[in-house]
Amino acid sequence: MIEPHAPAPPGAPPPWRGQSGHGGAPAGGPGGPGGPVRLPVRPGVGRFLVLAGVFVCAACGLVYELELVALASYLIGDSVTQASVVLSVMVFAMGVGSLAAKRLRPRAALGFAAIEAALALVGGYSALAMYAAFAWTGGWGGMGAGGSRYLLVAFSLAIGLLIGAEVPLLMELIQRIRRQDAGCAVADLFAADYVGALAGGLAFPFLLLPWLGQLTGTLLTGTVNALIGGALVLGLFRHDLSHRARRLLLITNLAVLGLLATAAVHVDDFERAARRAVYGRDVRVALHTDIQEVVLTGGTHGRPLSLFLDGRLRVSARDGHRYHRALVGTAMNAGPHARVLVLGGGDGLAAAEVLRHDGVRRVDVVEPDPGVVRLARRDPALSSLNGHAYDDARVRVFTSDVFTWLRDASPTTYDHDDYDVVISDLPDPGITASTKLYSQEFYVLAREVLADDGRLVVHAGPVSSRAHVFWTVDATVRAAGLRTTAYRVAAAPGHGFLLATPPGSRPPVPDPRGGATLLGDADRVRGLPPSTLVHPRYAD
């Protein structure tokens, strides 16, 4: 605990402006390392400037943290795991950094400036480095998911160490401006820190990510970090530094700002090159919607069209029709199909397959991303692949979160009767954002919109390579009160499907003439509990 200042004895020289003394002779003398500080402004103003610096540095630190979580979730998947890794490693590293920074307290101003310069460079370049490793080394240098997490841990550790080292140095600087009770000083410091974290946490999703993107957003954050750290020390604590230290610090900060500015100028070229490395040279459309990154490759000059959502292949002209025929055809051929609901499927291919069947009177498509629907309507290659399904008067599109739409669905809300067929054309359940769309609660909602003799068809992932996930989906659908028939189709190898019907109805049997093969008890993984909203069970 820092001892409070004792009154100066009679006849003692007055303390330097902005410093009430340390209760004894300061180490290094006035203005020297560890001693009282001479300020170019009044102590109250100086203290306010330091707390403002704490605010900005805390905002920058949280942006780095959120950027690591977001980029790792996008590149690796399973956002819960990535967030847990980043947060736990970073908090641990902050504690280590705080302990290590105690050695820098005698030269707190210089140490703080050096740490901010390093943090600006490491944090600002973290997104570029991670994306470059992913793009040019075949998925993190061929190291697989484990190797990608090693790189994530390395950045989390480095950034956490630097952020943790800020706190004791800032505390030292505040106390040297105006000595106060340790509890009050800690309260002021952490109040500024936490409010800054709030600002950074809100700025990342609402300003930086939608307006600048991850790469430019982190580079700008690093620039702000370097400017604040350098300006605070060179402007407020310059008397603590020797002429050589001031010159070295200025050169270092200018070099950091130059590196960040150079990267910002070339970030678009970098992103295009990285995108070509990931998706190939046929990238034709690349856009960031409010929900995800959408990339179209090929579709011209005889090159096959592919649609990627957040880096994952969703549609391929090579075999997309086989997948959608397997998904849609079995349920459509098993009974009445006048009214059909497609959950997901904004690319329009599932709707196109539905429209190939006679007797269809209405197709409702619920897609959360309007950007995908616009692309499916307007892009010549994609709209040709989906047979211009959205131009058909029988097709209605609802842009909404699928779970929310089902929860709010009623005949009066969306002008529908119960559906003969519900088609779940959604991302794989292993992706954390989709887990709720494979939950027991979700299938209960889907059952509510089914007709008494209706059918629900679900793509449940690969049967052989991810049997645990596939049969967990089956257990979850059954827990929702539906009867299931599991099958796979030779025309869509690697994909497994579930055909579900309400209780009391006659379970349909997939038509073997369509290439469907029933999966029996010998294939089943037994004893799997259902997945629920509060207990998801699809993590790899």
Mind explaining what this structure looks like?
The protein is α/β, with parallel strands linked by helices. The chain has two domains: 43-272, Growth Hormone, Chain: A, CATH 1.20.1250; 316-518, Vaccinia Virus protein VP39 (Rossmann fold, 3-Layer(aba) Sandwich). It is 52% helix and 13% strand. It is built from 15 helices and twelve strands. The protein has an eight-stranded mixed beta sheet. Strands 1-2-3-4 form a four-stranded antiparallel beta sheet, covered by helices on one side. A hairpin with a 2-residue loop joins strand 3 (306-309) and strand 4. Helix 3 (108-136) runs parallel beside helix 7. The chain is elongated. Belongs to the spermidine/spermine synthase family. S-methyl-5'-thioadenosine binds at residues 292, 367, 401-402.
Rg from Cα: 30 Å
CATH class of the largest domain: Mainly Alpha
Secondary-structure content class? alpha/beta
Low-confidence runs of at least 5 consecutive residues? 1-33, 140-147
Number of domains: 2
Considering DSSP H and I runs of 4 or more, what fraction of the residues is helical? 40-55%
| CATH architecture verdict of the largest domain | Up-down Bundle
Q: Order of strands across the biggest sheet? A: 7-6-5-8-9-11-10-12
Globally, the shape reads elongated
Total helices: the number is: 15
pLDDT averaged residue by residue: 85
Separation of the first and last Cα atoms? 48 Å
Number of strands: 12
Strand residue percentage: 5-15%
Sheet of most strands: 8 strands, mixed
> Which topology of the largest domain does CATH recognise?
Growth Hormone, Chain: A
Query: Helices and strands, in N-to-C order?
Result: HHHHHHHEEEEHEHEHHEHHEHEHEEE
InterPro entries: MFS_trans_sf, PABS, PABS_CS, SAM-dependent_MTases_sf, Spermi_synthase
Subunit structure: Homodimer or homotetramer.
Biased composition (Gly residues): 20-35
Subcellular location: Cell membrane
